[in-house]
Amino acid sequence: MHCTQCGQAAAPGDKFCAGCGNPLSRNAASPRTSSTMSRTFKVPVQGLRSVPHVTAQEATNWLQSLNAIRRVRLNLSISYGVVHIVALHCEIQDRSNPYRFGLDVIRLTPSGIRNAIRWAQNPTPHENLDQWSAAHPQAQILTERIVNSYGIPHEVWLLYRVLRTEPS
Fold it and tell me: Is the pTM of this model over 0.70?
């Protein structure tokens, strides 16, 4: 038996899915067919700085255009502390999915020389993640990837999902 919500296999006799916690339906005896889709996004560079938010928004738009994502995997190509390529690999199923997925980037390095020096001495990326989570209470972070430059964390890439709210 497989969960009709997330597709995870369930043991005989289970009443709730171990993956998503939803009640299991007895008529869901076989998994739905699935396929995979992948897309690669290049991070644009303006002057000496990369512009990750442009790529994150483009990737989010693509993810939200897909209706039946079961799983998403995020790969980043990083060199010299800068993300150059973002690859998303999705498993698509032939059913509707109650979630929508997105990608976001949090800049960690503070502005100003004094703040940057303090940050270099004691970087705290988890405070930024807590602030992001508080600002997005409906989102669940699936993957977080901290990108370091010269040993100092300067941005976090987040793959997240949000429960779809259909208009009534």
Answer: no
